[in-house]
Design goal:
The protein is mainly alpha-helical. The chain has a single domain (3-120, 149-285), classed as ABC transporter involved in vitamin B12 uptake, BtuC (Orthogonal Bundle), CATH 1.10.3470. The protein has 11 helices and 4 strands. It has helices at residues 9-40, 47-65, 69-90, 100-122, 148-170, 172-182, 184-189, 194-220, 230-241, 246-266, 274-285; strands at 3-4, 7-8, 138-140, 145-147. The protein has a two-stranded antiparallel sheet. A hairpin with a 2-residue loop joins β1 and β2 (7-8).
Length: 295
């Protein structure tokens, strides 16, 4: 068996694959957070709960309505994103002129309520969600077997992340969104409904979290607590990349997933803290994050 730096090749590439998969979820979730904060100035602490809701929505669609994974991939972001729209209209819209802390406290409370309701109903035991038949199996790469579903997760996450970046940074709609956060009165004067645009933006960010939840369901199972610890790591990713930076969130998410995977190979004891160590170092050197700008 071949080795790299004294580590069996298969073990090394296996951990890199796990890191890349985790990085896919970090990137998708931090992207949703960055969209919401960058365009609405809301720190959405309910993002982990909305990620969990996406997984449960997929499970409900399968077990109650008989709709498979592909339908869930399409419908779950819309359904959960719609709940985000209701939250934004009824609650968050009242906080935009206040300090960021109020939005964080409100969404933190919502996260506890949502998580508590699901935990009370379903307990803490994970519910199984099968990999779709078309994505079962694995590909033999010679040095390792690559599970087809995990490869799909990485490729699809990349497509969604960079598609979102292109939408926000390179299209007319994206320019309206950015202008609406900088000078809403001027944009409103051009006949654009800024409050509706803001509401749909929040719903879109929540939909990204739900999409990540659907993709995670076959890998991690469906659990009311699945977003509880992940959201802390995702916030660290957003801080490292730069609050509100779309590209920063994408690149940092994938990069830190790989770093975490490598750490599990060479120094497993630090694998749970390496992201927070990097965050502390980055904040000391560049407080606005690697790709962020000081507000």
């Amino acid at each position: 068996m071949s080795e790299i730096f004294g580590i069996p090749t298969q073990a090394l590439f296996g951990q890199l694959l796990i890191g890349l998969i985790n990085g896919s979820f970090y990137a998708l979730l931090s992207l949703g957070l960055a969209v919401i904060f960058g365009l609405l100035n809301i720190i959405n602490f309910a993002h982990g709960a909305q990620y969990m809701m996406g997984a449960f929505c997929a499970w409900f669609l399968l077990t109650r309505l008989g709709l498979n994974y592909w339908w869930a991939l399409l419908l779950s972001p819309v359904i959960v994103g719609s709940t985000g729209i209701v939250i934004e209209r009824l609650m968050l819209s009242r906080l935009y002129k206040l300090d960021h802390l109020y939005g964080l406290l409100l969404t933190f409370g919502l996260a506890l309520i949502i998580q508590g309701l699901f935990r009370n109903e379903f307990g803490s035991t994970g519910l199984p969600y099968a990999i779709p038949k078309s994505l079962e199996g694995a590909q033999n790469l010679g040095f390792m077997f690559l599970p087809t579903y995990r490869a799909w997760v990485v490729v699809f996450s990349l497509a969604v992340c960079f598609g979102t970046w292109y939408l926000i940074e390179k299209t007319k709609l994206g320019s309206y969104l950015r202008a609406g956060t900088e000078n809403p009165q001027l944009v409103q004067a051009f006949g654009i409904n800024v409050p509706r645009m803001v509401t749909l933006t929040y719903g879109f960010g929540v939909g990204l979290a739900a999409l990540a939840g659907v993709m995670a369901a076959p890998i991690y199972s469906v659990n009311p607590l699945m977003g509880e610890h992940l959201i802390i790591v995702v916030f660290a990713v957003v801080v490292i990349g730069g609050m509100g930076s779309i590209m920063g969130s994408i690149l940092t998410g994938f990069m830190l997933g790989l770093v975490e995977g490598l750490t599990k190979v060479f120094y497993p004891e630090a694998s749970n803290t390496v992201i927070f160590i990097i965050m502390a170092i980055v904040l000391m050197i560049k407080p606005a994050g690697l790709f962020g700008t000081q507000r």
